[in-house]
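Archive entry: two folds, one per protein. Generate the first.
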Amino acid sequence: MILSDASIKELIRAGELLLEPYREENIQASSIDLTLGSEVVLYRSECIDLKSPSLPVEKLSIPENGFLIPPKAFLLASTEEYIKLPDYITAFVEGRSSLGRLGLFIENAGWVDAGFEGQLTLELYNANNAPIRIYRGIRICQIVLARLDRPAEKPYRGKYLGQRGATPSKVFMDF
């Protein structure tokens, strides 16, 4: 069952759902708008080897005058908000339509498992032929929360638990 704005607020007030910083104006009818954090990560490699534990990346702060994403460019960013989902709530991450209409695709693999805690790392892709300037603090995505039929037997305790900032892939740990 997808949670309504009233249910989301109840969970936050009860301390069962953590959302820091919390801005009540970002609670929508059936979702929560999340804002863009302060840094981006770009991969700086001629070849990305999935088994490599040390892919070269460049972390950059988003300046006050914004960060320009070139056409057809991919980068990682994160939400400003730190979330903690209880073991009986999962979340879907969706890009905002207003940004998608400009060609900015926002993803995070689309799913946040019950029990996850941390800032969400977002994959951003500029599908436009023109650069797109982004600014920290803008509403970048939204999460839709759904209640599981019962608490997860194996809530998320994976390699990204507690992450802060844009976190590069740790797929090498799968091998």
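Generate the second and append.
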Amino acid sequence: MKKRKLSFWDIWNMSFGFLGIQMGFALQNANVSRIFQTLGAKIEDIPILWVAAPLTGLIIQPIVGYLSDRTWHSRLGRRRPYFLAGAILASLALFVMPNSPYLWFAAGMLWIMDASINITMEPFRAFVGDNLPDEQRTMGFAMQSFFIGIGAYVASKLPNLLTYFGVSNTAAEGIIPDSVKYSFYIGGIAFLVTVIWTVFKSTEYSPDELKTFDKQKKLNIPNEHSESWYFNNGKNHLLKGIIVLLIGVSTSFLVYHYELKKDLYVLTLGLISSGGLALIVSGLMQKNGIKNGFVTMINDFQSMPKIMKQLALVQFFSWFALFSMWIYTTGAVTEHIYKTTDTTSVAYNTGANQVGEMFANYNLIAAIVAFLLPVIARKTSRKFTHFLALTLGGFGLISIFFITNPTTFNLEWLPMIGVGIAWASILSIPYAMLSGSLPTTKMGYYMGVFNFFIVIPQLVAASILGFLVSRYFNNEPIYALLIGGISMIIAGLLSLRIQDTKPTTVQNE
């Protein structure tokens, strides 16, 4: 029994929901810093307000993946119930976010909005692994990258497009401009409609069929362990938990004692939480017969495929760079190039709109490049393709520092060509390398766990970027982009170390 090869339009339908999902993410990435600043946030406080986005992904994605692996609805299948529920919640959040009356309310809405988007998005990655045979997975992830690029391009251009048609791009102090509000409304509608299209135009394999595929590929990961294994593994978690907990408490004391930037508490409290979690797991695993969902998730995390571990460092530096770009580009462009921090000024809002154009352009480049990357990988290798793309992206970010004339090509296109190529690769190549080594019965969970290596660097960035910019770079956000560019180049170099054992999966689709 083999998975059937799907037609181009079948793959199109199963990926179409990503168009709306990425419109939601793009509106969030390009405009939330603007909303925060409009509501009174200082530039050095922006990273800590953004911590909601990666933190919700860290918590939500593995849980949704684990639950969706164990879900089967007679009409909606395995992943599609989560598509639909998340789309409804995310669409509502997109309508509420630009109407936030206070900064604390906007920060809370970011938590809700990002959680809802993650509920929808996480099963989409597993959806490709579930439904496509190995030889079509590169095409499946490339199709997702295409819709991500198109959706983000359209969403990023919306404020500027609405301004062109006469919608106000400025407002009184503390008020979100109408161009931003209406953009979020359009995004909310698109999110719901495109996801519903995928829900009703796609089908899924049953759990029994998926187990058969795993047996044929010999990808089963053992679920059962002896009582002695649980006890000994629990002792290992106890030792690790104590060490991490002590490090977290000690570093928290240092931050407090030396009155360092409070953003660093995100990192230190993360260590304390991780240590505490390890102690809880230790207690559960040393009790004979404990096999609940939580313990199962921890055991599966320990058993993750080798290539997943190899990709972790690459993902860390890649997403650290992306997060620095998303939260600091608005401040960097308006202050470094337009020489203003006044959110009510024409100069600031012109610069902010250009940031929207920059984000739109890198997503358009990603959409165009998405189907070219498999060709380059087939002629070289997937890891070299990823190295090349990330290196170009790093130099693209660094180039913004040297731009003094914000003409359309200089600012909106030149840096974003490299960033767009990197973005296309980040969205497809790691998943193409990973998916062939994952069992379909745990595909959702491991795709959720893979998100750890996306989220953790964003939490680290939220913790230390504000500190670095304020302490060493005189609160000039342009230096955060320099750090991000260097980080992306490091990610490219590390990708050359990946042992991609199945390069033949990148085939001419």
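Annotation attached to the second fold: Residues 503-509 have pLDDT under 50 and may be disordered. The longest helix spans residues 306-337.
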